[in-house]
Amino acid sequence: MSRTPGGGRTAVRTGVALLGGLVAATVAAALIAGRRWEREGARTVARLGARADSASATGTFEPAQLAGLPAPVARYFRFSLTPGQPLYRTARLVQDGEFALRPGAWRAMRAEQFVTISRPGFVWDASIGLVPGIAMRVRDEYSDGSAAMLGKVAGLVPVIDRRDTPGLAEGALLRWLAEAPGFPPALLPGAGVVWTAVDDSTARAAVTDAGLTVAMNVHFGAAGGIERVTALRYRDVDGRGIPTPFEGRSGEYRRTSGMMVPTRLEATWLLPEGPHTFFRARIVAASFGFDSRSRPSSQPKVASCQVSAASIVAR
Asked: Average per-residue pLDDT in the chain?
């Protein structure tokens, strides 16, 4: 059989050109998807911030606000807050760490979390490394009794899309409460948290929002800080909320904006087959009083993750 001279080389060049075009198209689609993710995240954070902006001013912390609180709770506030401390309504936390989609399968993670303090609410926007150069973008949110969870590979391919499935809002509200040591004014009785005495180093905290009520046991250290929280929390399993024992740990407190807040966080599901620690991170930046009208900006690459979540400039 005869072969056209140069035909093989032409086929190779054509194949290379097609492959190059496919790669270029994939990269362009990922970039477009990333920008769309950022815009959607910015709108979500703006809605959350506008909700906080509409809340009444919360004033300052005064020791008289501790009257009637269980002894370990009063010690905690004397440890974490100072008299005259502004009771901020919002917080922005930047987290650097790891996330395990399944037990032991740790992946590098970077996230920004925007929180409303005077009324429960948050947006958590994260990038979790999958393989070099590819990350899964995840955004969790809660506000006014409604919760959502969205995950996309490279911000493009949907893998998780939940909104108001059974137990999701309760689980999200409990997450806000469990993470409140990072923004202590949220735990004051004036912010809506109800405290009940358990013993000299433990108290129970409960909060109600939009008809939902969640509670957790809070375990305090000798210095006064919150070391551990335990609760029965809804865990999303294929769109179903499964009540599951949960433990959150915090430590390495540092003074930020006049408050003592933990810089090390860890979250664990206490499963029948054994504990599954799925989140461990450090707070690498914290600011209070973010402006919901600010424009988003991109975040730098950290570890193997690229994060460009909606960012709000602290005021």
From this structure: 84
Q: Is the pTM of this model over 0.85?
A: no
Most confident range (mean pLDDT) of 19-28, 65-74, 299-308 is 65-74
Q: How confident is the model at residue 255 (pLDDT cuts 50, 70, 90)?
A: very high
- Closest alpha carbon to 115 in 181, 39, 61: 181
Q: Is 122 exposed, middle or buried (0-12, 13-18, 19+ CB in 10 A)?
A: buried
Q: What is the mean pLDDT of residues 167-174?
A: 96
